[in-house]
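User: I'm curious whether this sequence folds into something compact or stays loose and floppy. Could you predict its structure so I can see for myself?
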Amino acid sequence: MVGVKNNRRAQYTQRVIQDTVLSLLESKPINAISVTEVCTMADVNRTTFYRYYTDIYDCVASIERVFVAALHPLKGASPSQALEHLLTAFYEDKKLSNLVFIEGRTDLLKRMQELVAQTGPKSPHIADYQGAYIGAGLQNILKKWVKDGMPESPHKLTKIIIDTILAKNLDDLRDEVL
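Assistant: Here's the prediction. I'll summarize afterward.
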């Protein structure tokens, strides 16, 4: 149907524009990308771009919203199941993962933290400082995983993260240090 925003042609055009923006973000910061450049590379005219997005930032925000919405937090899942679910989503979208964890050029991590805060478990046992510490560590583990080309499966990385958080090998490390 002509004029319907969610028809297949419109969805295809939006995807081409988004893929072009993601490709450009691999080599330059968002503030250095112009609508003209995106339109030229995507082979669409400016009117088409502005039919869907107000600017490049709006396009990136749209990519982030779709990704976060597709996560579908697992209801009743254990923390390790939820983590593996999240890692699988990143594993399946390597280009976006690279931008999030290596380049840091999107607000996706902030959006995901908001989602976790809204839907995640509220544990009285984890203080705010512990939560901040674990969150920062998790982000750095994910950054290393993505930077290294995601060599471990999401399942294996989940186990590594859980073992790290629970300090399963802390005694071995203490013996090495002392």
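Summary: Residues 128-147 form the longest helix (20 residues). The chain has a mean pLDDT of 79.
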